[in-house]
Backbone:
């Protein structure tokens, strides 16, 4: 009888081993997906509103210009491994509480819609999760007073980057991209700061590689001297 039971156990052993391998393989896949998720990289884009209101007639008609904002969030580009292009036409649906918080960062509803359709809809997140990421990163990022006090400031590119670094623990020069545009207007002339991009890996600052940020052309690169336009 004991010999018979031993034979049964030996016969079922390959099946058990196969099941164990399948479970291990599944667990490895889940772990791999979790690790890939943990390594996700994103780029937070911040518009410097007064400069864009002056330089872009179309932008000048937006809500943020009417509200006299110093800066707003343009988008959060979350990069995935599939390099999927977003083509969604859906409109993000948020709870009233979350929508109110998003409105303070992105007052223009069309800008919210574009951020979701161009970046959020293929990030693997729901609209609520995507805009929660924007809220979290925006609340954690500290901007120096030169970007928030509504006054016009002239400083060097290095000075501005150093002020951003001093305001945010762990931020380095390589984690920041600046965009500027030249203005010949009588009111304000020179290289006007129009956008700041900050790169992240999850919730930590991360080096902005050329393959994860929009290319900064010669026409939008910042020279040594920068003007931050006030309201």
Residues:
């Amino acid at each position: 009888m004991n010999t018979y039971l031993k034979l049964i156990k030996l016969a079922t052993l390959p099946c058990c081993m196969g099941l164990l391998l399948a479970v291990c393989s599944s667990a490895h896949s889940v772990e791999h997906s979790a690790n890939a998720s943990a390594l996700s990289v994103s780029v937070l884009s911040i518009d410097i509103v007064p400069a864009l209101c002056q330089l872009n007639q179309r932008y000048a008609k937006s809500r943020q210009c009417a509200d006299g904002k110093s800066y707003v969030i343009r988008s959060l580009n979350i990069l995935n491994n599939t390099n999927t292009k977003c083509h969604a036409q859906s409109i993000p649906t948020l709870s009233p509480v979350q929508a109110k918080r998003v409105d303070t960062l992105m007052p223009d509803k069309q800008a919210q819609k574009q951020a979701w359709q161009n970046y959020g809809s293929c990030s693997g997140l729901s609209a609520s999760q995507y805009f929660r990421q924007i809220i979290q990163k925006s609340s954690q990022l500290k901007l120096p007073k030169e970007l928030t006090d509504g006054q016009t400031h002239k400083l060097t590119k290095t000075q501005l980057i150093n002020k951003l670094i001093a305001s945010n623990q762990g931020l380095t020069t390589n984690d920041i991209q600046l965009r500027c545009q030249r203005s010949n207007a009588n009111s304000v002339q020179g290289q006007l700061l129009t956008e700041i991009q900050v790169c992240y890996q999850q919730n930590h600052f991360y080096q902005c590689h050329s393959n994860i940020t929009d290319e900064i052309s010669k026409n939008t690169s910042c020279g040594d001297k920068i003007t931050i336009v006030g309201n």
